[in-house]
Amino acid sequence: MDRYRITKGREFRLADWDPGETKGFDGGKVEARAELAELTSKLDDLQEKLYANGRHRVLVVLQGMDTAGKGGTIRRVFEGVNPSGVRVAAFKAPTEPELAHDFLWRIHPQVPGNGEIVIFDRSHYEDVLIVRVRELVPPKRWKARYRHIRDFERMLADEGTAICKFFLHISKDEQGERLQARLDNPHKHWKFRLSDLEERKRWDDYQEAYEAAIQQTSARQAPWYVVPADHKWYRDLVVCRTLVKTLEALELDYPPSPDDLSDAVVE
Length: 267
Ligand code: AMP
Ligand code: MG
Description:
The chain is an alpha/beta fold. It has helices at about 30-55, 70-75, 95-100, 130-135, 140-160, 170-185, 195-200, 205-215, 230-250; strands at about 5, 55-65, 85-90, 115-120, 160-170, 225-230. About 30% of the residues are buried. The site of adenosine monophosphate has 10 residues, from helix 4.
């Protein structure tokens, strides 16, 4: 899955990345779902070790355009994992008190603690995405945020947090189909907002903003993964494989009991 990892953003051009490709897997949806089932069970074991060790923290950032599948990815990738070991933090439009503070104020309390995996469904990146596209603060302010984000993530990494940032990359055509499907299905209207159509009109501005964010905030200790997400089964596979690899790299073991168990007898 290294092919999708960006650790140096300078040369990154979003136009070079095909949202519809499935090159990292030899097979189709059915085979991919089978592999995903194996991977999620691995992820479950790894999560248990992470918790047992209690020394590492894992932060997963999910970003993408509307309908890119942030919710679906969370559901599929973590369905086999013990719910006690993972937490989702969703970041919506900021509240009044949140707006009265710096943009990281609401983010920092949600980062993972020891032994924890936290998934950010949207994140501090909204503050250089929608905020940039919609000009919610003056340019001088959002421009400085790339540096603040780099520094913040470096601090988290230095303090023991493994960070994976996923951009779920869909094409404009695919988004059109998914929005239409939502509109055609009354059971999906609860997650349809007229503002989604307004955001879609700004598609190119958003692509530019995503490109800039990835260029400016990719780092060895906080890589971006550009996930081809037009095919849901491929998207889930790429995310899950990446997480399994990231957790495996921590070389987790089951720690011994704090007690000496050599004479322990169950009567
Ligand atoms: P959803 O994830 O579809 O429920 O929508 C949440 C909405 O909140 C999206 O339109 C986001 O762009 C918006 N949002 C999240 N964070 C921010 C932020 N920091 N500033 C402005 N809007 C935000
Ligand atoms: Mg939405």
